[in-house]
Amino acid sequence: QLQLVESGGGLVQPGGSLRLSCAASGFTFAYYAIGWFRQAPGKEREGVSCISSSGGSTNYADSVKGRFTISRDNAKNTVYLQMNSLKPEDTAVYYCAAVRAFYCSPGYVPGEYVYWGQGTQVTVSA
């Protein structure tokens, strides 16, 4: 069964850290670039970060650059998003998604991603 499953969300204080995981199954993971998106209440879904199929290339939205780190382990079919120095504005549901491409395309266009997880809630609050 083809699926992406996110985990690792939760409630954290401002300045804290979380590590999200995205576990994939049912497709050839190493052929897909993986992106992380987030959606806050009342806002559009926005791209956060993306990693190429090999893991050799990454990119980040300006809002998270220097605070978030994306990585992947193709042997475990898993992508990670390490989130440090979290801010209240990082509060959102975080989704991982797969695009059949070696590299991430610019612009984080959700329609380009063919497989999506169900999301995991991240809440940053004192």
Largest sheet: 7 strands, mixed
Strand proportion: over 45%
Count, helices = 0
Give the termini separation: 39 Å
Helical content band: under 10%
Structural class: mainly beta
List low-pLDDT spans: none
| Molecular shape | globular
What would the average pLDDT be, to the nearest integer?
96
Describe this structure in words.
The chain has strands at about 5, 10, 20-25, 35-40, 45-50, 60, 70-75, 80-85, 90-100, 115, 120-125. Strands 2, 4, 5, 6, 9, 10 and 11 form a 7-stranded mixed β-sheet that branches. The protein is mainly beta. Helix content is about 0%, strand content about 45%. The mean pLDDT is about 95.
Short description:
The chain is mostly beta strands and about 130 residues long. About 0% of the residues lie in helices and about 45% in strands. The strands form two sheets. Strands 2, 4, 5, 6, 9, 10 and 11 form a seven-stranded mixed β-sheet that branches. A four-stranded antiparallel β-sheet has the order 1-3-8-7, with no helix packed on it.
